[in-house]
Design brief:
Two copies of one chain form a homodimer. Chain A is an alpha/beta fold. Chain A is built from twelve helices and 14 strands. In chain A, the strands form four sheets. A seven-stranded parallel beta sheet of chain A has the order 3-2-1-4-5-8-12, sandwiched between helices. A three-stranded mixed beta sheet of chain A has the order 9-11-13. Chain A has a two-stranded antiparallel sheet with strand order 6-7. In chain A, helix 1 links the parallel strand 1 and strand 2. Chains A and B meet through helix 6, strand 6, strand 7 and helix 7 of A and helix 6, strand 6, strand 7 and helix 7 of B.
Chain lengths: 382, 382
C-alpha cells in the first residue's frame, strides 16, 4: 500500500512513517518543516535533539534498507501538492500536517488566523487533490478529542442518535471545542464530512486524545531517528511536561484544580491506530470517526503519578496548582466511547510506572536541554 | 445606537443600512464592493441597475438629511478594520460581509478556499476587534438555515436538549451544511460561540432562510437607492429567479424533483429582524441563535405559484425539472422552529400574490437586462 504521511517530520508523523515503513508500506512524507520553525519562533527546543529531516530519511534507509521519499513543501500550496499526488498516487493519505498546539493558536489574532487558515486550506487542498487525482484514496485525518469539549452526556464516536419530539436521527455529535486550534479541527471535520457525502471520498477522522511517551521501537533504533520531546508551555502536553518538570527539579504545574479529564494515548498506540485505519479503510462516501485514545485521566492524577515515581530517581517534585491560563471547566463529567479501534485489533499500552521511568530516564539524560523559563504558561486564553 | 453594517452595499446589507438609518440609528457601512466585482467575474448583472456606492450614500443624505458613513475596505485586512472600529466605536456590528453564494463556493477549489478563508478571517477579525476595542459591542451575525441541512428531526434555534444514556445536556444543534459556502457559516458559528464563552462577547447568530423580494420602502424611494435583484444561476435564489425566468419568457427551472423544502423570508422582514436583534441585544457571554425565516416552502411550489400569477401579465411559463446540479435530498422531512424573532415583535410579511406581481412588474420593466444565458445552472456540486 502506497501511503503519503503529511506532517511526517513531526512528533506523531515521524514515528508513524517509520512504523508503516517497517511493516512494508511504501511510504512518502510531505512536510514543510514548520514545526522546527516554531521552535525557533518560540525560543524552545525538543528535549531530545532531533536530526535534520534529510538525515533522518538517510539513516532509516541505511539501517533498514527501506526508502521513505521526502517532499518538503506546504499543503496550502495547491499546485505543489497536486504535483506530489500525481507523482505518488497514494492509496492512503495520513494527514498530521497541521498546526497542532492550542496555546500557539491563542497567542494572538495573527496566530489564531494562521492556525485556522493553515489547517483548513491544507485539508481542503488534500480533499480536492483526492477528488481530482486519486479518488479511490483513503484519507486518514487526525482530529482531536478536544473537538467534543466537555458535554454533560457521554461522548460517542463522531455521531449520536438523537430522539426528539417523537422522531429520531443519527447526527454528527455536537462540538464545543476549547481553542482556536481545536476549532480548526472541528472545521476540518465538517469539511471532510461534506466531501464524503458529496464526492464519495472515503475518510477516517481520528479524534485523538493527548499523546504521551516519545519513542517507538523504530525511533529508538538510532539517535538520528529520535523523536521530538516537547516540554515547553506551548507545544508540551500533560505527562511529558510533568516528567520534564520533575527532571529539571521544578514543581509539577497543574493548571487550575486539575480535574480536567481527557482521553490519553501512548505514542506506540498512535502509530498502531493509523496502521489499523489504513488496513481497514472507510468505504467510498463514508466519513468514519474513531475516538483514538485508550484511557481517561484527570490532569492532577497524572501529576501525582509522576510525583510518585520521581523519588526513585532522587527527585522530590511538588505538585502545585497554577491559575488556569485556559478557559475550561476544571471539574466536569467525562465519559467518552473508544471501542472502534479496539474492535479493529488495537491492544492498548496502558500507562504504567515503567513508561514514566523510561521518560524520566530520557529527560534526565538530556536535562541540560530543558529550558526552565519555558515551562510556565505564557499564553492566556483571555 | 451606533451601528456598523459590514457588507452594507449588498443585497441584504444596503436595505438594512437604510432601514436602520431611517429609524434613527447612527449607521456606518463597511464594504469592499466585492459583490460588484463578482458580477464582472461571472459576466452577470443585477436586473435593477444599481448606483455606485458613493452615489447611494449621497442620495440618501439628500433625500432624508441622514448621513451614513461609508468605509471601503476589506474585513480580512485586520489593521484597516481596527482603525475603523477605533473611529466608529459601534454599539452594534451587523455582519453581512461575506461571500454568500453556494454555487460560487462550488465553482472550483480556488473559489471554495476563497469563500472559506474570506468568511472565516473576516469574522475572526471582527471578533478580535470587538474583544480588543469595543468589548461591549453586540455582534449581529448573518448565518444561514443551510447550516442545519435536512435532518430527520425538528430543527431548533441553535441548540437542542439531548437525552442520552440517562443523562442530558443542551448542546449546539448538529450541523450538516450542503456547500463550501454553508460550511463557512458553520465554521463562523463555532468560532463566534467560542469567543462568547471565552471572552464574554455578546452575539446573535441569525440563521436566515432564503431571502426573496427586492425593495424596501427606503430603497424604493429613488432609483439611485434601488436594491440589487440577482437573477443568475450563481447569485440568484428561488422565487426571485423564477420571476426573472417568467419575465424573460423562459421556463421556470426547478432543480431535480423540487421537494427541497427551505425556510424563506421577505427582504422587508430581514431588515426588521436585524433591528429587533439590535434593540434586544444578547447578554455578555451569550451566543444567541435565531432562525430568521417566516415560512417554509418546497421549491417546486414556489415555481408553481409564480406560474399561476404570470398569466396576469400575458406570460405562460412552464415549470420544468432540470437534473439537479447540487447534491441534496429532493424529498425529506423539514420542520424548523422560528419563534424567537416573533417573540421579539416580528410581524411577518407572508408571501402573497401581490408580492409576486410587484416582482414581475419590476422584472418586466427591466427585462432587457436579464441575461438569458445566465439562467441555467453552470456550477455542478460533483
Amino acid at each position: 500500500m502506497r501511503v503519503l504521511v503529511c506532517g511526517g517530520d513531526g512528533f506523531c508523523g515521524w514515528p508513524t512513517a517509520l512504523h508503516l515503513s517497517a511493516r512494508g508500506f511504501d511510504v512518502a512524507i510531505v512536510d514543510n518543516l514548520a514545526r522546527r520553525e516554531w521552535d525557533v519562533e518560540l525560543g524552545t527546543q525538543s528535549l531530545l535533539p532531533i536530526a535534520p529531516f534529510p538525515d533522518r530519511l538517510r539513516r532509516w534507509e541505511e539501517l533498514t534498507g527501506r526508502r521513505i521519499r521526502g517532499y518538503v513543501g506546504d499543503l496550502t500550496d495547491a499546485d505543489w501538492l497536486m504535483d506530489v499526488l500525481q507523482k505518488e498516487r497514494p492509496d492512503g493519505i495520513v494527514h498530521f500536517g497541521e498546526q497542532r498546539s492550542a496555546p500557539y493558536s491563542m497567542i494572538d489574532r495573527k496566530h489564531a488566523v494562521f492556525t485556522q487558515v493553515n489547517n483548513i486550506v491544507g485539508t481542503l487542498n488534500i480533499l480536492y487533490g483526492i477528488k481530482e487525482i486519486v479518488p479511490e484514496c483513503h484519507l486518514v485525518k487526525l482530529g482531536t478529542m478536544g473537538e467534543y469539549g466537555t458535554p454533560n452526556i457521554d461522548i460517542e464516536e463522531g455521531y449520536i442518535e438523537i430522539h426528539h419530539k417523537g422522531r429520531s436521527d443519527v447526527l454528527p455529535y455536537p462540538k464545543q471545542p476549547g481553542s482556536m486550534y481545536h476549532l480548526s479541527k472541528v472545521h476540518d471535520s465538517h469539511n471532510i464530512h461534506f466531501c464524503c457525502r458529496t464526492w464519495g471520498i472515503a475518510a477516517t477522522d481520528l479524534n485523538q486524545g493527548v499523546v504521551y511517551g516519545v519513542q517507538t521501537p523504530e525511533t529508538a533504533m538510532d539517535p538520528v531517528l529520535y523523536n521530538r520531546f516537547d516540554t515547553d508551555d506551548v507545544f508540551g502536553t500533560a505527562l511529558n511536561r510533568f516528567v520534564a518538570e520533575a527532571a529539571a527539579g521544578h514543581d509539577l504545574t497543574v493548571y487550575g484544580r486539575g480535574g480536567q479529564t481527557r482521553g490519553f494515548i501512548q505514542i506506540r498506540d498512535t502509530v498502531r491506530c493509523i496502521e489499523l485505519a489504513l488496513v481497514h479503510p472507510a468505504q467510498p462516501g463514508e466519513f468514519r470517526v474513531f475516538n483514538q485514545f485508550t484511557e481517561q485521566f484527570a490532569v492532577r492524577d497524572l501529576a501525582d503519578r509522576v510525583a510518585r515515581v520521581a523519588p526513585e530517581f532522587g527527585l522530590q517534585p511538588r505538585v502545585v496548582h497554577l491559575p488556569n491560563p485556559r478557559v475550561e471547566r476544571e471539574e466536569h463529567y467525562y465519559n467518552a466511547a473508544h471501542t472502534r479501534l479496539i474492535e479493529l485489533g488495537l491492544e492498548p499500552h496502558l500507562l504504567d510506572d515503567a513508561l514514566i521511568r523510561e521518560l524520566l530516564e530520557l529527560a534526565l539524560r538530556y536535562k541540560d536541554r530543558i529550558l526552565v523559563d519555558k515551562l510556565l504558561p505564557r499564553v492566556s486564553w483571555r
